[in-house]
Amino acid sequence: MSEFFTALNDDHCAFIAAQPVFFVATAAEDARINLSPKGMDVFRVLGPNRVAYLDLGGSGNETQAHLAADGRITIMFCAFDSPALILRLYGRGAYALAGTADYEALAGHFPRLPGARQIFDVTVDSLQTSCGWGVPYMNFDRERKTLAKFHAQQDPTERLARIATRNRSIDGLPVTVQTVMPTWDD
User: Fold this and answer.
1) H, E, C per residue of the chain
2) Are 138 and 151 in contact (CB under 8 A)?
3) Per DSSP, what are the bridge partners of residue 34?
4) Residue 132 — left, alpha, or beta (φ > 0 → left; ψ -120 to 50 → alpha)?
5) Contact 5/126 with Cβ under 8 angstroms?
6) Do 26 and 72 contact (CB within 8 A), yes or no?
7) pLDDT digits (tens, 9 = 90+) for 68-126
8) Which of 10, 31, 47, 162 has a 20 to 30 Å separation from 128 between CA atoms?
């Protein structure tokens, strides 16, 4: 029922590309486990052992805090249609804040979305597929536009000032705050 792999293959990449949602899990010692759903076409496969996703500001920044403290990350995709399948990517992650050279090197892979604050860059150590037979059938209707609309109407200076006060995770771990807005070359 389950199978482990050491690298992403073409079938894995096609499955990932077809999924409208993915889930990110991280943990740090003596901290809550963080599990976040993601959408908005922000996930990219960069190689057989490298993936990345664009992160927008939201309710917190637990993933960054956990990666800085521990580095471990699991990303899960699951099919809500046929054929049933679950794909988990296990790896080590790093973050590249908007305005840094690392961010700029990766930004071209992603859509230009208001509220972008960092890109998570993950080295995939192993991956696992499993049956997914317990996952219900569901239909994808459409992406929510609320987060992008919220960020688009924000004054950039006010947004950065508010972000500057959010330098701790919910468990008190340090968070490196964004100090510049992403730039886009047109």
Assistant:
1) CCEEECCCCHHHHHHHHHCCCEEEEECCCCCCCEEEEECCCCEEEEECCEEEEEEECCCCCHHHHHHHHCCEEEEEEECCCCCCCEEEEEEEEEEEECCCHHHHHHHCCCCCCCCEEEEEEEEEEEEEEECCCCCCCCCCCCCCCHHHHHHHCCCHHHHHHHHHCCCECCCCCECCCCCCCCCCCC
2) no
3) 26
4) left
5) yes
6) yes
7) 999 999 999 999 999 999 999 999 999 999 999 999 999 999 999 999 999 999 999 99
8) 31
Kindly calculate the radius of gyration of the chain based on its CA atoms and give it in whole angstroms: 17
d(CA 82, CA 71): 33
In angstroms, the first-to-last Cα distance of the chain is 48
Q: Which two tokens stand for residue 162?
A: 């508010």
Q: Please, what sign has the CA dihedral across residues 159, 162, 165, 169?
A: negative
Q: Which residues contact 5 (CB under 8 A, 6 or more apart)?
A: 12, 126, 127, 128, 129
